[in-house]
Amino acid sequence: MQTDECRYADQVVEYVRGGLDPAIRSVLDAHIPECGICREAAADARDVINRLRSDPDVAVRRDQVPLVLGRLAAGPDRIRAAWMRGLAAAAGLVLLLGGLLWMRMGGPKGPAAEDPLASAMAWMCETQEADGSWSTARWGGRPQFEVALTGLALMAMLEGDTASGPVQSAIDRAVGYLVSKQDETGRIGPAFDAELYNQGIATLALARACQERKTESLRVALDRSLNRIGSLQNADGGWGYQNTVDRASNLSITLWQVEALRLGGKLGRESGQGQILRGLRWMTRMVSRNGSFGYRQPGDVEGKAQTLTAMGAMSLSDDVAGSLLNPEVSRAIRKEVSRLADDPGPDMDYYRRYFLAAALKKMGEEPLVARQLLGLRERLIARQEAGGSNQGSWPADDQWSEAGGRVYATAMASLALR
User: Fold this and answer.
1) Is 213 left (phi over 0), alpha (psi -120 to 50) or beta?
2) Are 317 and 284 in contact (CB under 8 A)?
3) In the predicted model, what is the mean pLDDT of the chain?
4) What is the pLDDT of residues 332-383, one digit of tens each?
5) Per-domain residue ranges of the chain
């Protein structure tokens, strides 16, 4: 079956299985009746699944593969269809043909071998250091950002299925590493001008871990870190570089501090509500009437405007933050995010893709948003390493990779796919 002729054919198997996000399902609900390729794919998939369910000897489990291949070698009845590619979030095996053909069901079969996220998590587990960190010396990036990189990797793992032993162990070690890097002032990582990237990202990761692990030691470390973030807020409501003459607030640093404080608030911390509100108000002053965001003021740093807009839109695309914006400006932001999602540009910017995906998810589940999310996912999966020692990771080749290396690229791509 040729699935290349329709962009949605790759999603049909998972649609028939009952998977996919509601937003993407709604797109296929309307599309499949109108598309002959997808109708045929859906019919074949239903036939295969029904055959599998009727044969108690061949359950859809990995340990049945030798049995299936043996039956095929012995003389199958008739091969009905070739294997087809499925959505990134799914993984499994389906058998096709009267005697049953084996079908791989995972993400769009781009470079990644199986489920893209499972492959990414396996790479992260294999490359984690004994102390729980991920090394910039081994994977590229600046040594002073090792805390932030570990935080990003930790968040990518926490957002997925944490039930497996290796992932659970990696999470525990990463949490322990971040806590061990905190000093008595609450700072996590070394003191340098960009230390708030470490602070904000590591604190957000610890807050996310605290949602699942409410231990006293973790709660104390998180509260201390949040207190430090609050103490470094500028008078205008934002955050900026430290240990420099110019500590002017900027959007990139401010966003991570605001997001950490917001998640801390969801965990019951009330003392930071005023800091969150001031931070959000500062961010609203960074947006132009056309919906794009600036770095220190509206319209500046044009070369990074797309990434800044994705960041600002993600943080301001909810009811609380949105109430601080003029409705006309809110509509302009939504329009600009939609434009960026339709035309993200030829360059791969993992930072931008993550924030675009997060902003789109907050904006709703209408078919347009679902289609745009699907497009972002496909572009990311197409760049994932197919094999070799780095299988499952993403190459460090965007404009931010010199600071974060392959760990940054893999963590941000994984978060975008979540």
Assistant:
1) beta
2) no
3) 82
4) 999 999 888 887 666 788 999 999 999 988 877 677 788 888 888 999 999 9
5) 9-105, 116-417
3-state DSSP call for residue 101? coil
- The dihedral over CA atoms of 249, 251, 257, 259, expressed in degrees to the nearest 10, equals 150
Q: Which of 309, 319, 245 has its CA nearest to residue 283?
A: 309
Mean pLDDT of the region 34-46: 83
> For 75-194, where are the alpha helices, taking DSSP H only?
116-127, 136-139, 146-158, 165-180
Residue 285 burial (CB < 10 Å; 0-12/13-18/19+)?
middle
Which CATH code fits 116-417? 1.50.10.20
Closest CA to 42 of 23, 56, 54, 25: 25
Whole-angstrom distance, CA of residue 105 vs CA of residue 107: 7
Question: How does residue 75 score in pLDDT terms, banded at 50, 70 and 90?
Answer: very low
Cβ contacts of 349 within 8 Å, gap of 6 or more: 306, 307, 398, 399, 400
Instruction: Retrieve residue 290's tokens.
Output: 């056309």
18: burial class by Cβ within 10 Å (0-12, 13-18, 19+)? exposed
